[in-house]
Amino acid sequence: MRLANGVLQHYGLTVSDWGGGSYMVANPAGQNENVYALAGIWESVDALLNGQTADPLDEALIESLEGLVSARRTNA
Fold first, then answer.
1. pLDDT value, residue 76
2. What are the φ and ψ backbone dihedral angles of 62, each rounded to 5 degrees?
3. Tell me, what's the pLDDT at 2?
4. How far is 30 from 28, CA to CA, in rounded Å?
5. What is the per-residue pLDDT for 67?
6. How far apart are CA 65 and CA 51, in angstroms?
7. For residues 35 and 71, what is the distance between their CA atoms, to the nearest angstrom?
8. Ranges of the chain with pLDDT below 70
9. Residue 51: CB atoms within 10 Å
10. Pick from 25, 62, 20, 56: which is nearest to 40 by CA?
């Protein structure tokens, strides 16, 4: 969940465990989608971005994730 939230944070979204059998993807406006497999999270991300498209190869996203990894190594 930590890695998924690290990715989704870049888009202002969160994901949480929903009862052990699915996941809840949410945006700051309070909209959410229930997803039944990790593979379905990305489709929900696009839906919750209200017309924007999430790009997993976005350079800003990759830099953000590299920063999270660096920070984690520093704190370890």
1. 65
2. -60, -40
3. 82
4. 5
5. 81
6. 24
7. 30
8. 76
9. 6
10. 25
Counting every residue, how long is the chain?
A: 76
CA distances to 14, 40, 41 from 1, rounded to whole Å, are: 10, 14, 11
DSSP secondary structure letter of residue 20: T
- Report how far residue 25's alpha carbon sits from residue 33's, in angstroms, rounded to the nearest whole number: 5
SS3 assignment, position 63: helix
Neighbouring residues of 14: CB distance < 8 A, sequence distance ≥ 6: 5, 8, 25, 26
Contacts of 44 (CB under 8 A, 6+ apart): 25, 33, 35
Q: Which two tokens stand for residue 47?
A: 């839906």
